[in-house]
Amino acid sequence: MESVHKDKIYTSPVRKLARFFEQSRDGWKDKYRAAKVALKRVTNRACFLAKRKEHYKQRVKELERALAHAQARERRLEQEVEGLRNQVNEAATAAAAWREVTRTPARQQYGIGLMTLFILLVVTAAISLRGASRAIEVFRACLPVPLDGPAWPTGRLWLLRLGYYKLTRPKVHAEDWIWIVDHTIQLDAIKCFVVLGIRRSALPPAGQCLTHAQVEPLALLPVPHSTGAVVYQQLEDLVAQTGVPRAIVRDHGSDLNAGVAQFCQIHSGTSDIYDIKHKTALVLKHELEADPVWQEFTQLAARTQSQVRQTNLAPLAPPGLRSKARYMNVDILVKWGQDILAYLARPPATRQPLCDPAQVQAKLGWVTRFEQPLREWAAMFQVIARTESLVRQEGLYRGLHLKLAEQLHPLAQTERVQRVQAALLAFVAQEEIKANEGERLLGSREVLESVLGKLKRLEQDQAKSGFTGLLLGLCAMVSTTTQEIIRTALESVPTQQVLAWCAEHLGPSIQAKRREALNSPQKAEQKWDELLEPV
Predict the structure, then answer these.
(1) 414 φ/ψ angles, rounded to the nearest 5 degrees
(2) CB-based burial of residue 366 (10 Å sphere; 0-12 exposed, 13-18 middle, 19+ buried)?
(3) pLDDT, tens digit, for every residue of 126-136?
(4) 355-379 pLDDT, tens per residue?
(5) What is the dihedral of CA 385, 388, 392, 397, to 10 degrees?
(6) I want to staple 180 with a disulfide (CB 3.0 to 4.6 A). Which of 83, 119, 272, 445 is the partner?
(7) What is the residue range of 229's domain?
(8) CA angle 399-402-405, nearest 5°?
């Protein structure tokens, strides 16, 4: 190629060629300068755009950060607004609730909230009447709430009116009622017939025990004399309220036995069910009453209790047994015997230093002679406790004795325990056939025993002076107790109605009779403040 250019021969004159080449060179120079200017302009534009891009990128980041801050601030403001809205709603709800709590029922002086608080302190928290009144005074002193607490006699009338309302309000007529009946007695000849009820459809699920809130008070009938005929008539009168019951759960008191048997004979659809707790106590009595070893053990325990009561061995003293229905709590004495055996088996150096080991051996060493009987008695009580627990939680139904037999089989290791087991299995098998196929009935009336114990705790020393109007407190302790029920009770039951019921069914109390008997008609009444005046 280079050889071609070198060998090229120009025919034009040199002067023309010089001018042509000069013009061509100048043209290319102009093009180069224009291209260089254009390139410079493009380069500058590219640098400018790159800087603008970086600027806008930074600006975008700044705006994104500002947006994030703005969104976070918006969320905080929304949360604050929501919190303020909730506070306003809570304040409005609290204000409405406070208005409702402080709203005074018709013909009442105190707010329904205060009345509910007093009644629940007595019924639920097991506080005495005076204690509930003092507790409200403490609330008023500690909380910035204007509570004008009632005197305890006022709260007592609230409780009685609630009990009267629950007792006398209409009951549902149905064929599945289960009546739980018993007699309770105090000082005087009056015996009170108590009936609690629950519908079979309202029984708690299997595995759960019956509670106070699930039963309804049906009858509270104090009578001066109770016989089988009287009990039968009381049951017949109760039919008008609930209809004929499906079952009656009771113990084997003579008057209850005769009255309930007559009632069930006339009403064949009603099953007569014997309380499992009384049955186990009867089985225990049959096994232990004529047992010379048991008699010796209880006598030594009673003697030891009196000997160590006022000594430093008092923490090891045996528990006392009931004077009535003593075979319902003898298990605590057997448990004490086992604990003492375990205590004596420990080396003296590891025992709590209550006293000299020789003194412990002298006063409690006799328990070691009953190691084998205590083991057998404990097995008996395990069988009884397992039976009571199963019937209490499961009720009575077809096939229950098979489930019980599976649970009791590992516990029966001796002939005596096997005898107790056989008696209880036979009893459960006999009672369960009173339930229809696919039906579950109540087998225990311990809920009634619990309510009676709660009533005695409420009465305290008054229980030693015969029945008083607090008997209606028993009805207030059962069934559901809500603020609305309390309001309805206090608005619909006047105090005079409760006083009239007490006068009709209870009459004068023991204290009133004592005052009347010991008050001399010739002796003028003397005020206590007159006794304080100086002579």
Answers:
(1) -120, 165
(2) middle
(3) 888 899 989 88
(4) 677 888 888 889 999 999 999 999 9
(5) 130
(6) 445
(7) 167-275+465-517
(8) 150
Indicate if 360 and 404 belong to the same structural domain: yes
Beta bridge partners of 441: 396
* CATH code of the domain covering residue 477: 3.30.420
One-letter amino acid of 422: A
pLDDT tens digit sequence for 196-226? 999 999 999 988 899 999 999 999 999 888 8
Q: Which of 72, 100, 128 is the last residue of a domain?
A: 100
Distance CA 353, CA 427 (A): 48
Residue matched to tokens 């709260």 = 155
Q: For residue 492, what pLDDT band results from cuts at 50, 70 and 90? A: very high
Q: Same structural domain for residues 302 and 229?
A: no
Amino acid 324: pLDDT: 56
- Tell me how crowded residue 182 is: count the other CB atoms within 10 A of its CB: 20
User: Amino acid letter at 449?
Assistant: E
Q: Which residue has the tokens 């089988």?
A: 228
pLDDT for the residue numbered 187: 67
Instruction: Assess contact for 446 and 393: CB atoms under 8 A.
Output: no
Whether residues 285 and 263 fall in one domain: no
Is the confidence at residue 290, as pLDDT, over 50? Answer: yes
Looking at residue 303, its pLDDT comes to 92
Q: Please count the structural domains in the chain.
A: 3
pTM of the full structure: 0.77
Burial class (CB in 10 A: 0-12, 13-18, 19+), 439: middle
Rg of the Cα trace of the chain? Answer: 46
Q: Which residues pair with 168 in a beta bridge?
A: none
Distance of alpha carbon 236 from the chain centroid: 34
Distance in angstroms between the alpha carbons of the first and the last residue of the chain: 162
- Higher pLDDT pick, 16 / 424: 424
C-alpha to C-alpha distance for 366 and 337, rounded to whole angstroms = 10
Same domain flag for 74 and 88: yes
Pairing of the two strands 177-185 and 191-199: antiparallel
CA dist., res. 443 & res. 388, Å (int): 9
Residues 288 and 258 in one domain: no
69 in any annotated domain: yes
Q: Strand 247-250 vs strand 191-199: parallel, antiparallel, or unpaired? A: unpaired
What distance in Å separates the CA atoms of residue 451 and residue 213, rounded to the nearest whole number?
11
Residue 107 is assigned to a structural domain of this protein? no
Q: Is 197 helix (H, G, I), strand (E, B) or coil?
A: strand
Mean pLDDT over each residue of the chain, to the nearest integer: 86
Is the domain of 291 the same as that of 379?
Answer: yes
Give the residue from 413, 432, 451 where a domain finishes.
Answer: 432
Can you tell me whether residue 391 is helix, strand or coil? helix
Tokens, residue 331:
């298990």
